[in-house]
Design a protein that fits this description.
Layout: E1 2-8, H1 16-27, E2 31-37, H2 43-52, E3 56-61, H3 66-72, E4 75-76, H4 78-83, E5 88-91, E6 97-100, H5 103-113, E7 122-126, H6 130-133, H7 136-141, E8 146-151, H8 154-163, E9 169-173, E10 186-189, E11 212-215, H9 224-231, E12 236-238, H10 241-256, H11 262-272
Parallel strand pairs: 1-2, 1-3, 4-6, 7-8, 7-10, 8-9, 10-11, 11-12
Antiparallel strand pairs: 3-5, 5-6
The chain binds 2'-monophosphoadenosine-5'-diphosphate.
2'-monophosphoadenosine-5'-diphosphate (ATR) binds at residues 127-131, 151-153, 156, 190-193, 198, 200.
Length: 273
């Protein structure tokens, strides 16, 4: 039976086993998918030990090991190179390991599922940490008119923009949003502010009621950022639960060649929040 796991710290909260077992049921595959708690010191040995088992076909890696595993794999996908991080390890037939990142595809697929247009859109991405870096390539591949990364620490936004130099991709300081005149079609919050119930300080003027607002975080109720947008009259607000399931679906596809139907899984998870 094929074996998978997710490494992280903390890891007890991870929904990945639940998600992947639902995918396997859809696919008619019998798999085991566990959670593995690791420390910075034992992560690499724990990873190597996992793959000693011939049944171990792949694993997911979450915070804080995504960068460490990118240095361990034999090969990186183009997206993982740009992200500097890996969330999916695939054991290839020759026994070597490919590191990929599925967060960007998970986000983009969720946006498309929600009928949010990316091609030709003016997009504001809040935050310039690992979460932002992981989705840049996938967003830019769909040719937005503009992708503006705005971050509290300006230098990080500028560094991000340098990763994929092109005219429609810029990095600015959050404060510079005051100078933006044209509204955005889509605003994506990738900051970790939602996790601590904080609102990134952006002027209300950039949030037009016709925009789509997407928060990569999710909870049992709308995040503070989504609540704020709703108060400003925005109708299209979405949290990141669909992205979570979308990135898992992409990992499952990379391992098994089967594309799961994400909708029943999103609905099931939503009912358990
Ligand atoms: P992650 O992997 O979740 O992206 P990270 O790499 O630590 O985590 O990045 C967190 C991001 O959220 C950063 O862009 C951070 O801004 P700074 O670079 O200025 O630190 C942003 N962030 C966190 N809390 C924030 C807040 N209260 N307001 C605005 N931005 C915030």
């Amino acid at each position: 039976m094929s074996r998978y796991t997710v490494f992280g710290n903390p890891i007890a909260q991870s929904k990945s086993p639940l998600i992947h077992h639902m995918f396997a049921q859809q696919a008619g595959l019998e798999i085991t998918y566990e959670r593995t708690l690791a420390t910075e010191q034992d992560f690499i040995s724990s990873l190597s030990t996992f793959f000693v088992d011939a049944d171990a076909q792949g694993c997911n890696v979450t915070s804080p090991f995504k960068e460490q595993v990118a240095r361990w794999v034999n090969e990186l996908s183009a997206g993982a190179k740009i992200a500097g991080a890996v969330n999916t390890v695939i054991k290839k037939e020759d026994g070597t390991f490919l590191g990929d990142t599925t967060d960007g595809k998970g986000l983009v697929q969720d946006l498309l599922r929600l009928n949010v247009q990316i091609k030709g859109a003016r997009i504001l991405l809040l935050g310039a940490g690992g979460a932002a870096r992981g989705v840049l390539q996938s967003i830019l591949a769909l040719e937005p008119k503009l992708l503006m990364v705005a971050n509290r620490t300006q230098a990080k936004a500028k560094q991000l923009a340098l990763l994929l130099p092109q005219d429609n991709f810029v990095g600015i300081d959050l404060n510079q949003l005051n100078e933006v005149q044209q509204p955005f079609d889509l605003i994506i919050n990738s900051t970790s502010a939602s996790l601590s119930g904080e609102l990134p300080s952006i002027p209300d003027s950039v949030i037009s009621s016709g925009a789509c607002i997407y928060d990569m975080s999710y909870a049992d109720k709308p995040t503070v950022f989504l609540q704020h947008a709703q108060k400003l009259g925005v109708l299209n607000t979405f949290d990141g639960l669909g992205m979570l399931v979308g990135q898992a679906a992409e990992s499952f596809y990379l391992w098994t060649g089967y594309r799961p139907d994400v909708l029943p899984v999103i609905q099931k998870l939503r009912s358990t929040l």
